[in-house]
Design a protein that fits this description.
Low-confidence stretches of chain A: 14-27, 77-84
Helix content of chain B: 25-40%
Strand order of the largest sheet of chain B: 5-6-2-7-1-8-9-12
CATH architecture of the domain at 54-65 and 125-258 in chain A: 3-Layer(aba) Sandwich
Strand content of chain B: 15-25%
CATH architecture of chain B: 3-Layer(aba) Sandwich
Mean pLDDT of chain B: 89
Helix content of chain A: 40-55%
Structural class of chain B: alpha/beta
Low-confidence stretches of chain B: none
Order of helices and strands of chain B: EHEHEEEEHEHEHEEEHEHHH
Radius of gyration of chain A: 20 Å
Order of helices and strands of chain A: HHEHHEHEHEEHEHHH
Number of strands of chain B: 12
Largest sheet of chain B: 8 strands, mixed
Structural class of chain A: alpha/beta
CATH class of the domain at 54-65 and 125-258 in chain A: Alpha Beta
Shape of chain A: globular
CATH topology of chain B: Rossmann fold
Largest interface: A-B, 63 and 63 residues
Oligomer: heterodimer
CATH superfamily of chain B: P-loop containing nucleotide triphosphate hydrolases
CATH class of chain B: Alpha Beta
Shape of chain B: globular
Mean pLDDT of chain A: 77
Number of helices of chain A: 10
CATH superfamily of the domain at 54-65 and 125-258 in chain A: P-loop containing nucleotide triphosphate hydrolases
Number of strands of chain A: 6
């Protein structure tokens, strides 16, 4: 672990130096990138290698940012608690306010380390919380490890669905089975008068699921408590397990487990 | 880029806080003055939301002798996005960094923007290839500054602090921070709820602590999302919403900043 931290710190240093040099070496780094890319391409597509000790890998993606992937990931992992919860993130390796401003290749390298150079031990499920988009990170993860299934999180509005659709297409292209969609922030209930408002639209995710022939694994309403508990580091499934919100997440977790293929061995 | 007077980057760090929504309203707001020429460049290659938000879905880019022609919403408002280069809006762009950078370079070099008063650049979330590239390619020219968008919750603010540090590191001036989705007013009983509670004082407190300008708050109005989904200008469609006056105040402050900068330059 210390070695990894040291390496990542070194990478951070190199980046900072590059910036302070005012991009003078940008031509060299473009050349370097081109060469590296050609090298990688000529070796053919990366081979999928399973992570030692991990039975099944589940990814949470969306395409769009800010729809609740991380919140969902945190709350989904809890029901699988029987098997122990270990958590790994770049967030543990850098200072809280330090920006990680890396180009694709460095990101790929970091992801490799996060996946393979962490002592996961024996795991039944590894849940990977993906960043938004359909770029380097998503491609690297999909190409390098066998993924049991992907869950796509989205809010109901058209703009988010556009990106969710692209996410689904990406997984199709890299042959990762999409287990289903989660409709997040579906409805808000006024705490005073209980009036329900569909702030981000109504049932957009259900319609998209129908179009793509996918299942909707569940609906999570917009609830202040989900935000509050995440901000304080106590996902609602743990801090308020009897609440409707927690139960909604638990139901989704069950749906996911039902849809995962029987684990090997 | 010679004909472009003011360049504004819209950043966030966190995804889903409303950058593109804000960029679209900023573009409409600035273009309301028809003596000004406004351009909106969308460099979110994987998730280009701008064509849909500006009602330009399905439009294609035309090539002329002087380069690529932006797609015009109004006579004084032109837009460019990877969305216009796709054969279908559902096509996924699954590219690695170097290819994305190449496209951003083309957007800046090959698009015939003409004489522009304000160029707004809408970015994807995070601090990655696209942000490095836009700084690399635009860095030689003068960028007025960055507007950073956030929601009030701590998880979003964490990413904004990183974004602010990124700006400091690359010497990009910060015009200010906008707190989006700040409070929801129930349409029935008018009770204000904080859906994304500012457990640490929200963006205003953060700005005070980091000595960064706070541009204003925009409340959550379901009609904002709806207007964007329909490709309409929220400012024109729903002028009576409290969110509209919030937007207008923030846009005015951005204009003031650019104007001040210009006179300082001279």
């Amino acid at each position: 672990m210390n070695e990894t931290v040291h390496q990542l710190e070194r990478m951070q240093e190199l980046w900072t130096t590059g910036y302070l040099m005012g991009f003078k070496s940008s031509n060299t780094s473009d050349e370097f990138l081109k060469e590296k890319r050609a090298q990688i391409m000529s070796r053919g597509l990366p081979k999928q290698k399973p992570i030692e000790g991990v039975k099944q890998v589940l990814v949470l993606a969306s395409g769009k940012g800010g729809v609740g992937k991380s919140t969902t990931a945190e709350n989904l992992m809890r029901p699988l608690k029987n098997y122990g919860i270990e958590c790994m993130s770049m967030g543990f390796l850098v200072e809280e306010t330090a920006p990680v401003v890396w180009r694709g290749l460095m990101v790929m390298s970091a992801i490799e380390k996060l996946l393979r150079q962490v002592e996961w031990g024996q795991l039944d499920y590894l849940v990977i919380d993906m960043p938004p988009g359909t770029g380097d990170v998503q491609l690297s993860v999909s190409q390098n490890i066998p993924i049991a299934g992907a869950v796509i999180v989205s809010t109901p509005q058209d703009i988010a669905l556009l990106d969710a659709r692209k996410g689904a297409e990406m997984f199709r292209k890299v042959h990762v089975p999409v287990l289903g969609l989660v409709q997040n922030m579906s409805v808000f209930q006024c705490p005073k008068c209980k009036h329900e408002t569909h702030i981000f639209g109504t049932d957009g995710v259900r319609d998209l699921a129908k179009t793509l022939g996918l299942d909707v694994l569940g609906d999570i309403p917009l609830d202040v408590n989900i935000r509050k508990t995440c901000d304080t580091g106590q996902p609602i499934v743990v801090s308020q397990p009897q609440s409707d919100m927690a139960k909604a997440y638990l139901r989704i977790a069950m749906e996911i487990i039902r849809r995962l293929p029987t684990p090997p061995g | 880029m010679k004909g472009v007077k003011h360049k504004i980057l819209v950043l966030s760090g966190k995804g889903g806080v409303g950058k593109s929504t804000f960029s679209a309203q900023l573009a409409h707001g600035l273009a309301a003055d028809d003596t000004k020429q406004v351009a909106l460049l969308d460099i979110d290659i994987c998730g280009p939301s701008i064509p849909k938000m500006m009602g330009l879905e399905g439009e294609q880019v035309h090539q002329s002798g002087s380069g690529w022609s932006p797609v015009y919403v109004e006579e004084n408002l032109g837009v460019m996005s990877v969305g216009f280069l796709l054969s279908s809006p559902d096509d996924a762009v699954i590219w690695r960094g170097p290819k994305k950078n190449g496209l951003i370079k083309q957007f800046l070099r090959d698009v015939d923007w003409g004489e522009v008063d304000y160029l707004i650049v809408d970015t994807p979330p995070g601090t990655s290839d696209e942000h490095l590239s836009i700084m690399q390619y635009l860095g030689a020219t003068h960028i007025d500054g960055a507007v950073i968008i956030t929601t009030p919750q701590e998880v979003a603010l964490q990413d904004v602090r990183k974004e602010i540090n990124f700006c400091h590191k690359v010497k990009l001036p910060i015009i200010g921070v906008v707190e989006n989705m700040s409070g929801f007013i129930c349409p029935k009983c008018k009770n204000e709820s904080e859906i994304f509670p500012p457990t640490t004082g929200g963006a205003e407190t953060m700005c005070k602590n980091l000595n960064v300008s706070f541009l204003g708050k925009v409340p959550l109005d379901p009609q904002i999302g709806k207007s964007c989904d329909n490709g309409q200008s929220f400012l024109s469609e729903i002028p009576e919403s409290p969110a509209t006056s919030s937007y207008k105040n923030i846009i005015q402050r951005i204009q003031d900043y650019c104007g001040l900068h210009q006179s300082q330059e001279k």
